[in-house]
Please model this.
Amino acid sequence: LFAAPPEKDFEWSEQAIEGCSRFLQRVYRLVARHAEWLSTASTLSVSSTNLDLASPKEKALLRKAHQVLRRVSHDFESRWHFNSATALLMELVNEIHAQEPIDDGVRPEIAREVFDLLILMLAPMVPHLAEELWEMLGHKDTLAHARWPEFVPQLAAEDEVEIVVQIHGRVKSKITVESGLSEADLEKRVLSEPGV
Model:
């Protein structure tokens, strides 16, 4: 599923399966390392969490998890592109690794939601492994009965965005501004840039 969309022809390769196996082993080790700590955490949805109170690590993890959830849901519902969904899950796992140690600076309920989302998104592609990971996190119900999660736009939104300023088709500047900035404020910022 990672190598190509299901409707495309694909020539089998032993090397390609090794890469997928390494990724799944990495996910298993990641969940196993944190399973004891996370299995006692609250399973309440933190979707309504006030991001102003979240630590930078928590913001980064929640943002990445909900961005990936939004895109994976779209890939599953409309395009059936499991290969791009798998690549997105790899990005999420990389973000979790980048934020290690997770237990330092991340509340258990937030880490639990991120791991739960990862496992739920893995389930359509590797159901048996996902079921085992789900149980490792202390869930008593089977993963087959879990509902597909919904992403929260506020959690997926970036704090800042990069704006490229072009004049007559030529890039004159790139500025980073907070997301949600009004058009009038953005125009003032752009016009105050040297070279614009």
